[in-house]
Amino acid sequence: MLCPEDLLAPRMKASNFRLKDKKSRLSLLLTKSGSHENISPEKKTATTNNNISPEAALRWRDSFEDLIRHSDGVESFSQFLRTEFSEENIEFWLACEEYKTIDSEIRLISKAKHMYSVFIEAEAPKEVNIDYASKVAIQKTMASPTNTCFDAAQSKVYSLMKKDCYPRFLTSDIYLHLTKRKGPGTTMYRRRSRSCVFNEPRGEATSDSSDWL
């Protein structure tokens, strides 16, 4: 006969799984953004999601907010940033979004120190481009970090991506492929069959002015 503990165990496992799944969504996006270490941009961009409809991708032109509001947009933008070796920006932004959802003081301290060592301190493996004063301000909070200690740095990185990276993304091969459009300067011309007229008696060849459309 099953004891009460045996009956409760499956329920507790299911509840813990749902909680873990909910809190790991942002972490999953961070994992998807990947790293450029030892991987060429060409290899990384080959993983572009082919299931994204052109109509959905075109909506990302409306604003940067529309782009990063969708997981496919974040993944495509991350792939573009990898080609510029600047994916640390979106990875830091995603890490900040996840960090603000942490409700455990122990996990908050651990995550804050990890983020500081990866993104903030000098010579960090994925150091983001923020000013020295912001770095010092974050360092002072590491003894007792709060959910908002990275907010100022996150805002600076967000602004950088929006003003600098986002416009280039919209003209990149990655985005144009998703929207089924061609880049600037790629207008296709259809060539007619070439006709030449030889002037007598010299035999000089002249081209028909309507060779190209």
UniProtKB/TrEMBL annotation:
It comes from the Eukaryota. PROSITE patterns: RGS (PS50132). GO terms for biological process: negative regulation of signal transduction. It comes from Oncorhynchus kisutch. This is Regulator of G protein signaling 18. Pfam families: RGS. The keyword Zinc does not apply. Keywords: Signal transduction inhibitor. SMART domains: RGS. The keyword Hydrolase does not apply. Residues 63-179 form the RGS domain.
